[in-house]
Amino acid sequence: MGLRPLDLSNWFESDHGVAEEVDEKHRLLRDRRNEVVGLLDSCRPAAEELYGMVLEHLSRPKVAAVDHPLVDASLLVPDDLCIMERFDDEWRLSGAVVAFPSRWYLAAKMGRSLDEIHDVVPGYETQLASPVNAFFNRMTPERSVWRLNWSLVDSPELFLPPSHRRPPDDVEEWFFRVERQTLRVLPQTSAIVFTIRTYVRSLEELLSSSADYGTSLLLALDTAPLETLEYKGWVGVADRLRDRLTVN
Ligand code: HEM
After folding, report:
1. How far does residue 246's CA lie from ligand 1's centre (Å)?
2. Which of 63, 104, 156, 245 is the most exposed, having the fewest neighbouring CB atoms within 10 Å of its CB?
C-alpha cells in the first residue's frame, strides 16, 4: 500500500503553485461543476466537520460556508478532497471535489466501494483490496497516513478526464505526474477524508536534471506487467525512452 505515518502539521503541502491551482478550481467549478463535484446527501455532516478542520488547520477564522461545505473546503487548499463513509458494510465515496482527476470520471465512482472504485486497476483485487479494506476499518483519528502514486501522462493539464491517449511517439512530450495522497479520520463523524495533491513536471525536464531518473523510470516500465502498461496507455513508451536515453 505504500502508506507512511502523516505528521498532521503537514496535512496539506503549502508551496508554490497553490494560488494557480485554486484559481483553476474556481474556473472548473464555474464551467464544469458536474464533472468535478459529487455529493451524496449523507456526506453533509462530514463535510461540515472537514470544512471546520481545514479552516482551523489554516488558522482561518470560523465562517459559515457559502456553497456546500465540501466545496468551500476544497477552495481553501490545492488538493482534491474525498469523503469516504461506511455504509452497506463498505467504505464508499459519498462526497468529492476532484478538480484534477488522472484519467477517470468522478461521477462513475460516486457511492461506490473501495473495491468497485478500483475494479479497473490491474492487480488491485488480488494484491491491495484486502489490506486496504482492513486498513480503513482499523483507522483512528490518531493514525493518519500518506502515500505517493506516480504516472506518466501525455498532457501537462491538471484536469485530466479520460480521453484517447496520444501514441507515445515522442517521449519529450510526456509528463510525470505525482499524487501525494493523505488519509485521515474525522473524529466527530468517523468519516475518512482522502486528499490528493497533484504535481506535474515535463519528462524532458526530469530526464535532463538527473541521469538516475531515466534509468529508474525505464526499469519501472520494463518490469510492469503488460496489463498495467495497457491500463496506463504505456505500451511502447519504454522503447521510446530507451532510444532517448541511448541517444543522449
Ligand atoms: C490505501 C489506500 C489506497 C490505495 C493503496 C490505492 C491504490 C490505488 C492504485 C495502485 C491505483 C492505480 C494508480 C495508477 O494507475 O496510477 C489507484 C487508482 C485509483 N484510486 Fe486508489 N488507492 C487507495 C485509496 C483510494 C481512495 C480512498 C479513493 C477514493 C476516491 C481512491 C480512488 C482511486 C481512483 C478513482 C483511481 C483511478 C481508477 C481508474 O483508473 O478508474 N483510491 N488506487
Report:
1. 34
2. 63
pLDDT tens digits for range 120-164? 999 999 999 999 999 999 999 999 999 999 999 999 999 999 987
Atom 25, ligand 1: residue with shortest CA distance: 114
> Which residue, among 95, 94, 92, 90, has the nearest Cα to 134 in the 3D structure?
90
Please say whether the beta carbons of 159 and 99 come within 8 A. yes
Amino acid letter, 190: S
The cell numbers describing 13, all together, are: 503541502
List the strands of the sheet with 37-39, edge to edge: 4-5, 145-153, 175-185, 192-202, 80-87, 90-97, 37-39
Residue in 40, 100, 108, 49 with CA at minimum distance from that of residue 73: 49
Query: DSSP label at 124?
Result: I
Nearest-atom index, ligand 1, CA of 106: 35
For cell 488538493, the residue is 79
Range of the domain at 27: 4-247
Asked whether the beta carbons of 105 and 95 are under 8 A apart, the reply is: no
- Whole-angstrom CA distances from 110 to 30, 41, 57 are 20, 12, 27
Predicted TM-score (pTM) of this structure: 0.96
Establish whether residue 117 lines the binding site of ligand 1, counting it when its CB lies within 6 angstroms of any ligand atom: yes
Of the candidates 131, 194, 116, 140, which has an alpha carbon nearest to the alpha carbon of residue 2? 131
Query: pLDDT tens digits, residue range 36-63?
Result: 999 999 999 999 999 999 999 999 999 9
